[in-house]
Amino acid sequence: MASDPAGQPPLLTAAPPATLRAVLAAHAARQPAHTFLITPENGRAYTYADLAQQARHLGASLAARGLAPGDTIATLLHNGWQTAAIFLGSMARGYVCAPLNLVSQRSQLAYVIGHSDCKLVITSSDYEEQLMEALEDVSRAVAVVVIDVDQPALFAGATGALPVPALNADSPALLMYTSGTTGQPKGALLTHGNLLAAARTVAAWHGLTPADRVLSSLPLYHINGQVIATVAPFVSGGSIVAPHRFSTGNWWQMVRWHEPTWLNMVPTIIAYLLNAAEPGRTHVYPKVRFGRSASAPLPPEQHKAFERTFGISVIEAMGMTESASVVFCNPQEPARRKYGTPGLPCGVEARVVGLDGAVLGEGATGELMLRGPNVMRAYYKSPEQTRAALDADGWLHTGDLGYRDPDGFYFVTGRIKELIIKGGENIAPREIDEALLKHPAVLEAAAVGIPDVNYGQDILACVVLKPGAACDERALRAHCLIELGKFKTPREFRFLAELPKGASGKVQRLKLLE
C-alpha cells in the first residue's frame, strides 16, 4: 500500500480478503457482549452476539422459504434494530440485499422490485399498503414478510439445515439503486470487497475503534446510512445509535443520553439544527470527537456557524452509491481541513478530465473520475450503462464537475447535467445557492437553469425561508446583486415550503423544473 501525498492513511489498493460474514464471526467471538446498536425509541441495546444470532435465524428462515445463497431479498423499512440486523445479516449469510427507498413513487418502486429479481420483500405495517400497490405492477410473484423493526427477535422458528455458502471479496452483497431523477433507476452491484474497502477507509481516516459510537438518523436505504453509519462502525467493532428518523427536537437529547463520539449528518440536518439553536446559548458536548457531513455540499457559512454554535468540528466528505460511498474526505486534523471542499481522495485515485478525456492540471474544471477497490464492477443487468460509466481501466465517470487545488484538495462545482449555461458562460448552481444562504432569512436554497430566449438559459432560485422570517423577491434580488453581480443574479425567485430531496437529503434540482 502507498501513502497519499498529503500524509493521510494509506490507500487501499486491493480489496481485502475478508467478507462481512468473517467480520461478524470475529466480533461475535471476541466481543459478544459489546453493544452494536441502540434504538432510542425504546432504549434497548443489542450486542454483537444478538446480531450474529439474528443473522443465523434470518439465514434459516430464508432457506426454509426456498431462497438459495446468491438470491436477492429487498427491504422496505425505516431504521430500527431489525432493519440493521436484516441488512447486515442477509449479506453475511450469502444473500444480496436490495434496500428500497421509502419515498419512491409507485412506478419506481415496482421497477426496482422487478429489475432486481428479488424473491422476497421484508416490510413493516407502515409500508405494507405502499408495497402491495407497487407489486400489482410487477409481472412475477414476490413473497412478502411483514415485521416490526423494533421486535427483539425474529425468524427464530425456522428449522432445517442452515446453508453456509462459500463467500469471498468478489461475492455480490448489496444492490443499490440510484435515485433515477432523469430516467429509470440504475442498480449499482457492490461486493463484500467493495463494502469492506470503503468501511475500512472510513475507519482509518476517522480513527474509529470499538470505543466509538455514532449517532445517525440517515436511512438504511441510502449508501451513506449503510456504509458510513453502519458498515464502518461494524467493521471497527463500534456501536450505533439509530433512531427511526431525524428529529430536531430530540437530537441533542440523544447525544446527552447515549453519548456518541461522532455524529453522521448531511447539510439539511446541520441547517435545521442551526435554525433550532437558542441564540447566545453555549453548547458543550465533550464526548463528541467530531461531526461528519456528506451526501451534498456543505455551504461554508453553515459549516462555520455549526462549529461556533455547538463547539463540534465538522469533517466534510463526499461519497457515491457506485463507490460504496466514500471517495473524498477532509483530514482528521482541524488545522489541515478546508471549507467548501469534500477534501482529499479517500481510498481511491482521483483525477479531473476534459471533454476529450485528457487529464487536466490543478485549477482546471472538468469531470471528476475515480478508481479504487470500493468502486462497483457493474450496473446490474445494464451492460450499456456500465460501459458508459466505467472505462476499460476501471475509472468511474462521476458526472460531477470540479477541480483540484495546489494542495491536492478537490472542489465540486456541480453536476454536469445541472450546469447552467447562460449566454455561453457556465454557472455552477452551488455558487448561487451559497450566495443566497448568506441572507439571514434563508434556510435553504437551490438554483436551476430555465429556458431563456436571449441567453439560452437563465437562473431560477428556489428558496425556503426560516420559520417566522420575512423576506420578499425584491430583498433577495438586492442581496444577490451585491453577492453575485447582475449577470448571475437569478431572473426568477420562488418561495417554497420545502425543497425536493432524495433519501440522503440531497436536493434534487431537476425536480424543481417540474
* Silhouette: globular
SS content category: alpha/beta
Largest β sheet strand count, sense and barrel closure: 9 strands, mixed
Total strands: the figure is 25
Uncertain ranges: 1-17
- How far apart, in Å, are the first and last alpha carbons? 48 Å
Strands in their spatial order, largest beta sheet? 2-1-10-9-11-12-13-14-15
Number of helices: 14
Radius of gyration: 23 Å
CATH classification class of the largest domain: Alpha Beta
Q: Architecture of the largest domain, CATH level 2? A: 3-Layer(aba) Sandwich
- CATH homologous superfamily of the largest domain, by name? ANL, N-terminal domain
Q: What share of the residues does DSSP label as strand, in percent?
A: 15-25%
Average pLDDT level: 91
The CATH topology of the largest domain, please?
Rossmann fold
Count structural domains: 2
